[in-house]
Design a protein that fits this description.
The chain has eleven helices and seven strands. With 249 residues, the protein is of the alpha/beta class. A seven-stranded mixed sheet has the order 1-6-7-5-3-4-2. The protein starts with 14 loop residues before the first helix and ends with a helix.
């Protein structure tokens, strides 16, 4: 198809009109701060098999919390696990990643994100000038769902109190959710991740509101390894890192 040219007598816009059109055509600038709205998480109190809320509150360190919940059998995932995957990283990390749940490699090793998706996550963290050891990595559920399926709402509900207490103890400056599951279970956002990634959210934890940046799960990036997807994830993580750099220590 040849190039279609406008007739030479077509009226030309005024300079002020041209500048206005150019301004409208520019991509919107990402706001420096997250929006004021917050999603409040309330821990359920009717979870059979969970340590009571007072036991979670009594844990003043991540190590104490892990010991308190390590033998949890509150949902059907517990009896089928090989290893309980609590989480790992800097206990005072400014950046917290929250994924969906352990996979086969994680179930074998008892560590989060150690398979191919974990290798990619390490590269993603390195791309923003950080090391894995400087962040903290956790999941919505601590035990592997069969065949690496998505955790059910009941399974997630049984574990959310643990994740919530982890967040309280770590006190991160920013949370990055990986994929749709942590976004749905932590903040109640049910829209598809492709529609909400890159849009700041907030999570109220105790008396604090923590900015949350949703992005794609590394496993999705591996399946859709396109330049657009990789650029989107980098932009999301760069926004989180910029917020950390500007936030008070």
């Amino acid at each position: 198809m040849g190039l279609v040219r406008e007739p030479i007598h077509a009226p030309q816009p005024e300079p002020s009109q041209t500048r206005a059109a150019q301004a409208e055509a520019r991509p919107p600038v990402r706001p420096a701060a997250p929006p004021p709205a917050a999603n409040t998480y309330v821990r359920p109190t009717d979870l059979v098999g969970c340590p009571p809320p007072e036991a979670l509150a009594a844990a003043t360190t991540l190590a104490e919390l892990e010991r308190a919940i390590h033998g949890c059998l509150a949902c059907p995932l517990g009896p089928g696990r090989l290893k309980f995957v609590f989480g790992e990283g800097d206990p005072q990390a400014r950046l917290l990643f929250v994924g969906e749940g352990p996979g086969r490699d994680e179930d074998l090793q008892g560590r989060p994100f150690v398979g191919k998706a974990g290798e990619l996550l390490d590269k993603m963290i390195g791309a923003i000038g950080m090391k894995r050891e400087e962040a903290y990595i956790a999941n919505v559920v601590k035990c592997r769902p069969p065949d690496n399926r998505t955790p059910t709402s009941d399974e997630a509900r049984a574990c959310l109190g643990y994740l919530h207490r982890q967040i309280e103890l770590i006190q991160p400056a920013v949370i990055v959710t990986l994929g749709a599951t942590p976004l749905r279970e932590l903040l109640g956002v049910t829209e598809g991740i492709t529609r909400v990634r890159g849009q700041w959210k907030r999570l109220k934890v105790g008396d604090r509101e923590i900015p949350v940046m949703p992005t794609f799960h590394p496993a999705y990036v591996l399946r859709q390894y396109t330049q657009d997807v990789r650029r989107a994830v980098w932009e999301d993580l760069k926004a989180a890192k910029d917020w950390i750099d500007k936030a008070p220590a």
